[in-house]
Amino acid sequence: MQEVLVLGAGYAGLKTVRNLQKQAGDFHITLVDRNDYHYEATELHEVAAGSQPKEKISYPIRDVINPKKVTFIQDDVVKVNPEESTVELKNSGTLHYDYVVVSLGFCSETFGISGAKENALQMVDINTAENIHNHILHMMEKYRETKDKNYLRLLICGAGFTGIELAGALVDERKRYAKLAGVAEDQIEIICLEAATRILPMFDDKLAQYGVDLIQKLGVNLMLGSMIKEIKPGEVVYVTSPDENAERHSIDAETIIWTTGVSGSPIMGESGFAERRGRVVVNKDLRDPKYDKVYILGDVSALIDPETNRPFPTTAQIATRMGAHAAKNLARQLNGEKTEDFNYKSLGTVASVGNTHAFGLVGKSKVKGYPASVVKKSIMNKSLVDIGGLKELLAKGRFDLYH
Ligand code: NAD
């Protein structure tokens, strides 16, 4: 019997398993993840702000796999040895594979900025997101004791999609924080520091400006052209000019959240794959260029967009679609057939700003405001159906399209 090993139960890995387990054939699947649950990484900002409990964005992996076809192992992947067709796990020894799907996801990128790891809060998984919410609540209590305004200041580093969506979610929850601190809502300061002078490069000037105006109108202090140089305990140091000797400015804040970008898992480099920032440029059929029994999907892969000649941005949408395609190609390979190329066309990119605002592109059309928010929720619910199934969607009670 042939063995298919899937590493990581995020959007790409779990979708591969969900689709492949439905195929007939003489093969077995082993899925490995460090957690025994799948979580929606695109909703972490809601857990961080406290607008959703972690249970709403996660579900047990065992709920969605077929135990007759799939064995689940909860463990940490240490290294892939593509020359030997083996994978080393932290506690469960070494596994052999005939085919492997590497879908180990992202980690936070600090670009070597001093103090970012130690002195800023990360938002990379359920636990770190929940930690941010608990931290904010604790800071509100500290304000009550000390009346020090730094405890009321929430500072986000980086205004990419993650930073903007987090800022919107924090705005939605500001009232609750203010009540805890015993202050008026507008005393809770939400600041977002961004190096670029123009946010979200994938949108045209007008749409990006709409996003800027929207979050500023909601009361977020978006500081563009502010390049963070260092994070000290409770202090962000930045410059407003690229000049080497530019004057350094700083802002004190007891809540500093790091969202300046992501890279693929460091295991890609440690396993000897040809990677850059943890991402491997894959063939059109999603396999590694050197190892034809290795599929690389999601945030650890870089698939070149033939239109721009640059890698597609890493999103949940592309990861899920890659998972579906890899399952198809694996089924073909297991049957001795040739693989097919993956053709990707994005359905759209929408950033939500709190529960009722959003903006983005669907196809070539711009969507804004409340309708965009409905579109975004539909995309999210679609991903829950795609990977978890309808049962999971209903169990999560996430059908709140009308807010
Ligand atoms: P990102 O790389 O897209 O954005 C990071 C931002 O931080 C950039 O604007 C960058 O200029 C800024 N930055 C970097 N270093 C800085 C510094 N030293 N000082 C100040 N600013 C700095 O990262 P992300 O927002 O985490 O997104 C990661 C990926 O996930 C992207 O591909 C994104 O498209 C995707 N994503 C998509 C959605 C969605 O579709 N709704 C939501 C979240 C993330």
From TrEMBL:
<dbReference type="GO" id="GO:0019646">
    <property type="term" value="P:aerobic electron transport chain"/>
</dbReference>
<dbReference type="Pfam" id="PF07992">
    <property type="entry name" value="Pyr_redox_2"/>
</dbReference>
<keyword id="KW-0560">Oxidoreductase</keyword>
<feature type="domain" description="FAD/NAD(P)-binding">
    <location>
        <begin position="3"/>
        <end position="323"/>
    </location>
</feature>
<dbReference type="InterPro" id="IPR023753">
    <property type="entry name" value="FAD/NAD-binding_dom"/>
</dbReference>
<dbReference type="InterPro" id="IPR051169">
    <property type="entry name" value="NADH-Q_oxidoreductase"/>
</dbReference>
<protein>
    <submittedName>
        <fullName>Pyridine nucleotide-disulfide oxidoreductase</fullName>
    </submittedName>
</protein>
<comment type="similarity">
    <text>Belongs to the NADH dehydrogenase family.</text>
</comment>
<keyword id="KW-0285">Flavoprotein</keyword>
<dbReference type="InterPro" id="IPR036188">
    <property type="entry name" value="FAD/NAD-bd_sf"/>
</dbReference>
<dbReference type="GO" id="GO:0003955">
    <property type="term" value="F:NAD(P)H dehydrogenase (quinone) activity"/>
</dbReference>
<keyword id="KW-0274">FAD</keyword>
